Amino acid sequence: MSHTQEVTAFSLWCRPSTLETRPIRHSTETGESMNPSTPKTVLVTGASSGIGEATAQRLAADGHHVFVGARRTDRLETLVAGLRAAGGSADFQELDVTSLESMRAFAAAARERYGRIDVLVNNAGVMPLSRIDALRIDEWDQMIDVNLRGTLHGIAAVLPGMRAQGTGHVINVASTSAHRVDPTAAVYCATKYAVRALSEGLRQENDRVRVTVVSPGFTQSELTDRGGDPVAQGAARAASEQLAIPASAVADAIAYAIAQPENVDVNEVVVRPTAQG
Ligand SMILES: NC(=O)c1ccc[n+]([C@@H]2O[C@H](COP(=O)([O-])OP(=O)(O)OC[C@H]3O[C@@H](n4cnc5c(N)ncnc54)[C@H](OP(=O)(O)O)[C@@H]3O)[C@@H](O)[C@H]2O)c1
């Protein structure tokens, strides 16, 4: 193979910024830590219950500094007190992910407290299920605002800092509903497909910021407790009661992605009950 052919073949696999500015290096060469247990500052949205709460518990137990947000601050207060009592490093701030201002204030508070943000877990989400022809438009808007806009707000709040520090990790919690569409879940699926799409775009545009999509199947949480058409919501609750895996199973996948060396980007993980169709 000629030199020109080699360069052309190489360029197919590299981001433009990598080709322009620096050679590919591995973490052992750059001096970045290979130790998966290096403490990081991790922000978790929607940590007042379910997967977010379990993720905060797992990451604090791993020795990370955990900064959690949600609207129910009484829940966050209890969570943080428990994590600290167990020897963990944790703090919280009220957060509404539908507000860019609230998300920016949340990120700023974490930066103020810990000096930097290493990982954002964009986890907050809602799932009020209904058929499209029921026209529950307020709930469509809520899913778009929390699941999609909220994820984008999180990215907007942390990406400039991560790019400036030359490292970072955005973990977006999508769903198996980002991989298949079911009746009564069309709008929820649309938001989760969108989260996967924007995650892939974010990954392609950044060669120093890791991007992971974690897609849970039925998981024990409060997700089916709020809103939606009662029949559709009841069916989802019944399936969940029969199948659901513990929220800690999803937290374990998130912890795994975080623990990889900086040059290893776990892009997609699907974690679902073995018996889920
Ligand atoms: N459980 C499942 O079977 C399953 C399956 C696939 C994907 N997921 C995804 O997993 C993620 C976590 O959900 P979960 O199952 O753990 O349900 P959950 O127990 O209901 O937790 C949802 C979290 O999102 C927070 N949240 C909702 N609206 C918010 C807002 N505007 N601002 C800030 N936080 C908000 C809630 O906190 P506050 O109400 O206190 O604000 C809560 O902490 C979601 O993205 C969900 O779509 C869950």
Give a verbal description of the structure.
InterPro entries: KR_dom (IPR057326), NAD(P)-bd_dom_sf (IPR036291), Sc_DH/Rdtase_CS (IPR020904), SDR_fam (IPR002347). Keywords: Oxidoreductase. Belongs to the short-chain dehydrogenases/reductases (SDR) family. This protein has a seven-stranded parallel beta sheet with strand order 3-2-1-4-5-6-7, sandwiched between helices. α4 (50-61) packs across α10, α6 runs parallel beside α7 and α7 (137-165) packs parallel to α8. The protein contains ten helices and seven strands. The chain has 277 residues and is an alpha/beta fold. The longest helix has 29 residues, at 137-165. The protein has one domain: 3-Layer(aba) Sandwich (Rossmann fold), CATH 3.40.50.720. α8 links the parallel β5 (168-173) and β6 (209-216). NADP nicotinamide-adenine-dinucleotide phosphate (NAP) is lined by residues 45-52, 70-72, 95-98, 123-127, 146, 173, 175, 216, 218-219, 221-223, 240.
In short:
It comes from Planotetraspora thailandica. With 277 residues, this protein is an alpha/beta fold.
**Computed Rg:** 19 Å
Largest beta sheet: what is the strand line-up?
3-2-1-4-5-6-7
Per the principal axes of the C-alpha atoms, what is the gross shape? globular
CATH topology: Rossmann fold
Summarize the helix and strand pattern as letters: HHHEHEHEHEHEHEHHE
Mean pLDDT: 91
Question: Tell me, what is the CATH class?
Answer: Alpha Beta
CATH H-level homologous superfamily name: NAD(P)-binding Rossmann-like Domain
The level of helicity is 40-55%
Q: List the domain count as a whole number.
A: 1
Structural class assignment? alpha/beta
State which percent range the strand residues make up.
5-15%
CATH architecture label:
3-Layer(aba) Sandwich
How many strand segments? 7
| Spatial gap, N to C terminus | 48 Å
Largest sheet: 7 strands, parallel
Ligand inventory reads: NADP nicotinamide-adenine-dinucleotide phosphate
Poorly predicted regions are 19-36
**What is the count of helical runs?**
10
